[in-house]
Amino acid sequence: MQETLEQLIRYALDHQMIDPEETDYCANKLIALFGEPVFHHQEVQDAGLPEIMDRLLDEAVRRGLIQDTVTERDLLDAKIMDIVMPRPGEVNRRFTELYAKDPQAATDWFYNLSIRSNYIHKDRTDKNIKFERPTPYGPMQITINLSKPEKDPREIAAARTQKSTGYPACLLCKENVGFAGHASHPARQNLRIIPLNLGGDKYYMQYSPYIYYNEHCIIFNEQHVPMRVDHGTFEHLADFTDLFEHYALGSNTDIPIVGGSILTHDHYQGGRHHFPIEDATVRHHTEIDGISVDLLNWPLTTLRLRTSHREALIALADRILADWIAWEDPENDIIRETGGERHNAITPILRKKDGVYELDLVLRNNRTTEEYPMGIFHPHAEHHHVKKENIGLIEVMGLAILPARLKDEMKLIENVLAGNMAVEDDERLAKHARWIGQLQEQWTGTTDMDDFLQQALTDKFVCVLEDAGVYKMDEKGLQGALRFLEQVKHDND
Length: 493
Prior knowledge:
Oligomer: single chain
Shape: globular
Distance between the termini: 75 Å
């Protein structure tokens, strides 16, 4: 125990997480946590953080300090790391100092701190399965998300009996900083956030603990207020990309089905990652108010605005948003509202390249029918065996986040194609039966099995994105999208 605690302190010193004068303070906090009467400084071999934490958490289980569950280990993990990392005020000061010299250096430091403090469990996120395969729209990126550990029945039962206090109100509230957590709310003692002024409103920046892409950051409102996409949204996006030109920023829509999983707290997602949508080709080009407007060759109906004039960009984005909210095209199943419930919304994404703003506006509609009870422009039932969840911002941009179950299920499908088992041999294959039949017709045995199945999964993701597109990739869809563009132009006349 003494050796491992010394290794942890050495780790924190080596990564400039604590000052050398703070070693006794940190050592005393750690021995109090583990019930050790004294601390002996000693020479030790360096060790990686996962190894150090595994030993400490195993010892905590042996001493009866925690149960051996993912939840209790994670709660103690965050508590330990909070002892050997800078306090929130010091993080803000350091970030501000670095930003004054180089904004990218500031985000590099903050991102690395989030990893080194185990807020981002990189040992888990590195386990995600990732690959890229070609499609008619260009390469798509696929991730099978394995980073969230499965909970055992004890943890699920404990979460159900946990009395809700409503504090913090949600996982995005600023009150999470330093929160100890419990069975139904993760520990956030090692969370640090950076205040930002966007459009005169106070927001905070943090990194996602389950990063889905490089430097996946979350920008959240100081107040626990619902998601909204309006004029303020475009101001916020522009301010952020002015502050951090090496980052892009986007927002989910502000209505269900075509939005993200958290609509109750206003937030954005960004980072430094090259998404497939950036390389989309142009289906139709025009200019409005001197601004380049491209209808992209992309499965979801997307307008790309490019200009170096910020205010003109925001004014046109405002008009497109207002026109789309009011737009109806029954021939293409687009109805703007039902019984006062709005159906049209926009997913915006902004980048800044060499002083030029590049704003993607993705047109969305969440109407449901008896035939499509989960949404007309939502993954259709024949694809639910692979993807049933909402198509949110990240997937709109061409990065699939697929469920962990697919890792094992794709191995089973491989065995079926290889003739080693039948669909009936495992109940998990029942939902894939129709797809497996199609794959058996396509599989010739002459290509690599892994490549074949990865391409098949990518093709399925493309089908899901096409389901979510309001104007389809055919002549009828093109003419419908062009009619909408004409409406936007007409509003300026």
